[in-house]
Every structure is written in C-alpha cells, then in structure tokens.
Design brief:
This protein is mainly beta. It has one helix and eleven strands; from the N terminus they run H-E-E-E-E-E-E-E-E-E-E-E. It has two domains: about 50 residues, no CATH class; about 80 residues, Beta Barrel (OB fold (Dihydrolipoamide Acetyltransferase, E2P)), CATH 2.40.50. A four-stranded antiparallel β-sheet has the order 4-11-9-6, with no helix packed on it. It has a four-stranded antiparallel β-sheet with strand order 8-7-5-10, with no helix packed on it. A hairpin with a 2-residue loop joins strand 7 and strand 8.
C-alpha cells in the first residue's frame, strides 16, 4: 500500500488552493493504492472532508487551466515526458513563485527523464501568472507547465 508523503501533502495544499480560486467543486487524485477526493462546501453540502478510498479506479481528465483565452506565447509547455520538479531538491525553495518576475533563460523547473534532469528555462521575460505543474508529478509532452501574464 502506498503512503502519503510530504510532497503529496504539499501538492494537496496547492490543489486545494487552486480549487478555491477557480471555484472547482470536486477533484479526485489517485496515487498507487489510494485515492483522495476533495470537495468544497456549497450551500447543498454540510461537511466535505478529504476521503481516502483504496483500490478504486478513476477516469483521468485534462485539467482546465484558465477560463480566459490564453496566448500561446505565454504558456510554457513540456518538451518531453518525465517527472516535474519545482526545486533542485526537497530542501531547496522552488525556482519560481506566482507573481515573480523572471528573465528569459532563468530556470523555471526541472523535468527528470531517463534519470537525467533537464532544466526548463523561461522562453521570455515576464511575470509568472500560474504554475500548473505539480512537484514530483508526471508530465506528458505538451502539458502546460507554467503560464506567464
């Protein structure tokens, strides 16, 4: 049976924050043998707590990033399949934060592919609007990683 680790807890906090900002009512996350379901309270529900369900199957869907139109040049997409890391190691701060101004060529995050860490650099100067990639989570080719203002 898989265990929830410190990284999972950080990601759950980030997801909870994003669901509140984007008015998402319900989200399910599955890792190994466990599944976490987060529901926000509405006028129709009395209590909503994270619920862990073992050995359940879920359907994966593309995440809605932003309801507004995004310019392609403001989206940093994954150039490869791998695992995204927002910092150099678990004890280091993240390379970038929302609202931070970055210069073209600054490191935004790492993607580990075939035991090699690849730096994903800022294609242009600007302010970070949203960090879509979650720390220590898999990314596919073309997935949105970071959005600039």
């Amino acid at each position: 049976m898989s265990k929830i680790d410190k990284t999972d807890i950080e990601n759950i906090k980030l997801i909870t924050k994003e669901t509140k900002l984007n008015n998402v009512v319900k989200i399910k996350i599955k890792k190994g043998d466990y599944e976490i379901e987060l529901s926000s309270q509405t006028s129709n529900t009395s209590n909503s707590y994270p619920e862990v369900i073992n050995n359940s199957k879920i359907k994966t869907t593309e995440e809605k990033i932003v309801s507004e139109d995004l310019k392609e040049e403001n989206i940093v997409k994954s150039p490869m399949v791998g695992v995204a890391y927002l910092s150099a190691d678990p004890n280091s701060p993240a390379y970038v934060k929302v609202g931070q101004h970055v210069k073209a060529g600054d490191t935004l995050l790492l993607i580990e592919a075939m035991k090699t860490f690849n730096e994903i650099k800022a294609p242009k100067s600007g302010v970070i609007k949203k960090i879509v990639a979650l720390n220590s989570q898999p990314v596919e080719f073309g997935d949105h990683l970071i959005i600039f203002e």
